[in-house]
């Protein structure tokens, strides 16, 4: 038992993991060389707790034995048999023990040295990377990337306006009910929220550039399919998938661009980048006003496929995303992401390309990229995936990779709750939620309030006809904004006219003839219709409520919903959106110029508190023109807070968690927008005090909390 345990102890000690205090003693024969060069054997005693001065086994000399005094047990045994007996006992050689202990000490020193080196490299990488970016300079490469990523941000801005612009036409073209109409806007925002969470986490694992290509491709494919979807279900599904794709663009774009900027350029140029979201709003508003009202720009294939102008508008809105996708394909991956994933050579090549592109454009092509070595942190995640990829079927390898990636993303999310990140993360969540709640809530309230004012004005001009009797009359003029109660229409003809916001209540139609009649918001309630013919009209079942029909004929009816592109209210909404987007321009310019001079915290806090003061002016909104003016003022002041918040969000978090954190914050922004849109829309036509008060409280709370955030103006990217 002792000999066997000693052998086990030797193995464990050789790996530097185990020691034992057992006292083991044994005698073993060792092969030696005598003076004549002839092999012989001598005995030594091995003890674990004593022996030599250093605790190692020592050799004990015995009196030489006579040849005939040998043990009977070993008599006749040759040298090989004796050697095998000693090895079988498992008693180690003294030199082997020394070598094992020496190897254990060297291994421990090596591990300690690697750990210290890794910690040092992780601490030095941000400083070294900042030095490299300063050496590369800011020039042509950053401006090319600026415009490419700006187009991606512009595509996100366009998608934010598309649903609002096409909904009035789409609800008539596809006969969407009021309940389903609200579902479209809700699902698009939910998709954007989920997209921000998913793609923000993935860009920290598979790369900024690759994720941005995926995001833009998904948006392009499903937005294109939504142009041709004839059913509301397919249209809803395609817009949801498109929102899931483009929802990840904002976290990726800001993370991507930040890692190509040096410290003294970040605040200003990230603020300039925000202007592209404004350009997306301008582009969407202008093209909607220029395309949607023109019915003649559409076409039809048979009776089942209708391509109206609002579908062409969606098609035109794809151009920014398409241009961004083409540009991103020719852009390199973020070198900071590559360094964080121990891809040193790829990062070095990209940094040299940035250096050479900038200095060549500045007229100094002779400047040489002097960086020869970049310290990178050691990572084992990729090694684990590659080890798993050597076994199993293709599906098993794919499953292992995806599950491992999911585990890494979730681990990254959980690491954001670390003590050093917990407080600043909570403060950022509060500020993001408060700003998004007030901004998007009022963004819904402004156009809805204008529509309500238009409706009230329109209703005030309605003409009411009571108990009129019209007999053998030819109506060859349109009826607009009228109510006819208890009227009688005998042997009358309605031909080539339009009913717009007309209601017939408790009326009688006898021996009448309707031909080529178009109607908008027109209804017949509790009417009696006798011996009447409807020829080629859109007056169908949904237009008649509780009506009694006797001998009534419908010939070539225009079933379903039909568009009316001549409504003036749509033009006003396009103009309101256009002016609201244009009003952001001064705020963008001011915030970009002063972001690095005043600091992020002052910009965010000052902008939100000033915006809260602007909300009280909304109480003085008694006309459409005044509402539009206060809307432009609010957007101009609040945009600075958005710019500062987006800058500080990418600067506070380390590179390995930057995309994940920004994705979560942007997802919270979309969640706040969903809540605000329901709350603010519910009070339209009831009261404007509650929405204004909610926006004021949210902005004040967010502005005060923002003042507690750490300043990152002179912070090197971690």
TrEMBL record:
Q: Which GO terms describe its molecular function?
A: transmembrane transporter activity
- PROSITE patterns, per database record: MFS
The record, for SUPFAM superfamilies, names: MFS general substrate transporter, Pentapeptide repeat-like
Where, by residue number, does the polypeptide cross the bilayer?
A: 143-167, 179-199, 211-231, 237-257, 269-292, 312-331, 425-446, 571-594, 601-622, 628-648, 660-683, 689-707
Q: Record's Gene Ontology CC terms?
A: neuron projection; synaptic vesicle membrane
> Keywords for this entry?
Cytoplasmic vesicle, Glycoprotein, Membrane, Neurotransmitter transport, Phosphoprotein, Synapse, Transmembrane, Transmembrane helix, Transport
State the residue spans of region: Disordered: 44-80
Q: What is its main location?
A: membrane
Record-annotated Major facilitator superfamily (MFS) profile domain positions: 145-713
InterPro entries referenced in this protein's UniProt entry, alphabetically = LD_SV2, MFS, MFS_dom, MFS_sugar_transport-like, MFS_trans_sf, SV2
Q: How does the entry describe its membrane topology?
A: Multi-pass membrane protein
* Biased segments, Acidic residues type: 64-80
Q: Which family does it belong to?
A: Belongs to the major facilitator superfamily.
Protein name as annotated: Synaptic vesicle glycoprotein 2Ba
Please tell me the species this chain comes from. Answer: Nothobranchius furzeri
The gene name on file is sv2ba
